[in-house]
Design goal:
303 residues, Rossmann fold, 7-stranded mixed β-sheet, 12 helices, alpha/beta
Length: 303
């Protein structure tokens, strides 16, 4: 099972939207998909039509109650082939409940190992922080996708996230981030600023940046209120097309979309991204090198 963590400690970057719709797009391509809502805000749970407050068993119970299996909390969704491991606000207290517990950073990994033969792909919607929950997601993941909003503050956040991933990469051998990708979100092709950031991100990070970008689209904002992915809510929308393209690019099942052409900029971005990311560890492009399998957690020492 391939495990993809959607990670960014900055909120409002389209992380949950990307988790839901990428998972739905995978399922549309015939994959067996599990979406794990690992954000205490429970937006992925709500966005797929579940009442978070009415749930009596969630991913929180899997982490904190010995003997609770992941299969005990997984529920079907309205998308064929897509299952959900939901959460609610109780997940917010998990970090305090697990203080002092040996191997707490491996709890999600061990839970997912029990269903690895039941799914082709698992997508984890991580919280907008770099605490115990996100650490669990990063340690177990074979792939990391970082949604980055077309905003200067988002770029500063990406720098800090890369440093965190580098430390985790060093500490939790054989965890690998060779399969890491940067997903540009809230893209507006008509603005000079957005075009400049796209161009400079590709110059700095190269193939690490997906060719697919997620454009600002009102249907993406409307779909969660209907409890659906955009692929079922507005199948012909630009948002749905973007996430279908992203899923195909990740799985390499279709032609790769072309990145934007470089253009001469007169206004907009006033600071070169090369200066922001100077000296920052940057992994190799997404999908390069050997395929990355699930880590062998029996060989990892817990903190």
């Amino acid at each position: 099972m391939r495990i993809i963590a959607m990670v960014n400690q900055k909120g409002g970057c389209g992380k949950t939207t990307s988790a839901i719709n990428t998972a739905a797009a995978f399922a549309e391509l015939g994959q067996r998909v599990l979406l794990v809502d690992f954000d205490p805000q429970a937006h992925a749970t709500i966005g797929l039509g579940c009442d978070a407050d009415a749930l009596d068993k969630t991913i929180h119970d899997v982490l904190t109650r010995p003997g609770m299996r992941l299969t005990d909390v997984v529920t079907r969704t309205g998308v064929s082939g897509l299952d959900l491991a939901p959460c609610n606000v109780l997940l917010a207290g998990t970090e305090l409940e697990l203080i002092g517990r040996a191997g707490r950073e491996l709890l999600l990994a061990r839970a997912l190992q029990t269903v690895r033969d039941s799914y082709d792909l698992c997508v984890i919607d991580c919280p907008p922080s770099l605490g115990t929950l996100t650490l669990n997601a990063l340690v177990t993941s074979t792939d990391v996708i970082v949604p980055v909003q077309m905003h200067y503050y988002a770029l500063e956040g990406l720098r800090r996230l890369l440093e965190t991933v580098r430390i985790i990469h060093q500490r939790y051998h054989p965890y690998s981030v060779e399969n890491m990708g940067v997903l540009l979100t809230f893209v507006e092709e008509r603005t000079t600023f957005s075009r400049q950031i796209q161009q400079q991100m590709r110059e700095v990070f190269g193939g690490l940046v997906f060719n697919t970008v997620i454009h600002r689209n009102i249907r993406l904002a409307e779909a969660p209120s209907a409890g659906e992915s955009v692929l079922t809510y507005a199948s012909q929308s630009k948002g749905a097309a973007d996430y279908r393209s992203l899923a195909a690019e990740i799985l390499r099942t279709g032609p790769m979309p072309e990145g934007p052409a470089a253009g001469r900029a007169r206004r907009g971005m006033q600071k070169q991204l090369a200066a922001i990311f100077d000296g920052v560890w940057i992994p190799r492009p997404y999908g390069s090198g050997r395929p990355v399998g699930a880590p062998n957690f029996s060989s990892i020492e817990s903190t």
